[in-house]
Amino acid sequence: MRRNSSTYLRPPTWSVSQAMQNKDFRFGVVLISEGCSRTEWVAKCRRAEDLGYDVISAPDHLNLTSPFPSVQLAAEVTERPRIGTYVLNACFHNPVLLGRDLRTLDDFLDGRLEVGVGTGYVEGEFAEAGIEFGSPGSRVDRLDRALDEIHAAFRERHRPPLLVGGHGNRVLGIAARKAELVSFVGAKFQPKYGRMTIATAQQMLERVSYVREAAGDRASTLEFNLLSKATVLTGDRHTGVESLRRYGPELSTEELLEAPTLFVGTAAHIAEQVHELRDTYGISYVTVLEHALEPFGEVIEHLR
Fold it and tell me: d(Cα 234, Cα 229) in Å, to the nearest integer?
């Protein structure tokens, strides 16, 4: 049963439109292919479909299988889900050739493709590939150009939906203007920890507000996505969330419990949290990482 008021999240400074509150939920999973055989990849994809995921995505890292054949195989062995990339590293690919490859992939997937593109963030991978890491700004420049070339590649035909995600102003601004799907990663790199740390509920509200303003007239057409960092099924939320403290070393227990990117509680409780993501932020599309494939699958059962 739905509660009448938010338990976890502070009220927004703006109102989520009725249209966004009424959007159907979608659930995606990013599957990891490191050391994966064909048989293992096929089994993962079919399991994700059986659990009710709407989108099965492959990432783009050097230690994993290539995203393009991974996506192609995922489509061949499943029937219902859309098949995506979460996300292609724009800096790894010649932008003109990337547009060509995605056009071909879209043909072969019969309209099931969903294209996620990002800037890349693992400096060691750039060094290994012999690609200049550059500054954050230069990587965003390369993302921006890649998106333009993808648009150009599909100029005379239907284009698959584009997903662009991030946390900073410039990437989210580009997503607001050039993508159909805006993914809020809800995290930023903290040099003193040497890793990403998560945003608070209030910080996420500000990020969503920023995108809505940057999108202007496009705001009502966008679909908002959240990349969740962890799902812990437990009857003891306080103990459960403490196991995730590495994601927010400086946050209080209550701030961790309120963080939109962490799901902690019973499956029914987390399902309510997902409803509140839509009611509060307008986020109707949730993506989890492979380690949450099974636990979040139990949550999906409460949301259908």
Answer: 16
* Non-local CB neighbours of 175 within 8 Å, separated by 6+ positions: 164, 165, 166, 182, 183, 211
The full length of the chain comes to: 304
Residue type, 44: K
Cα–Cα distance measured from residue 290 to residue 241, given in angstroms and rounded to the nearest whole number: 19
pLDDT in tens, 116-130: 999 998 999 999 999
Fold of 18-301: TIM Barrel (3.20.20)
The residue among 194, 190, 201 whose CA lies nearest residue 256 is: 201
Is residue 72 a contact partner of residue 105, using CB atoms and an 8 Å limit? yes
- What span, in angstroms and rounded, lies between the C-alpha atoms of 113 and 157? 14
The Cα 101–Cα 107 span in angstroms is 10
Q: What is the DSSP code string of 204-251?
A: HHHHHHHHHHHHGGGGGG-EEEEE--EEEE-S-HHHHHHTTGGG-TTS
**Res 156: pLDDT:** 95
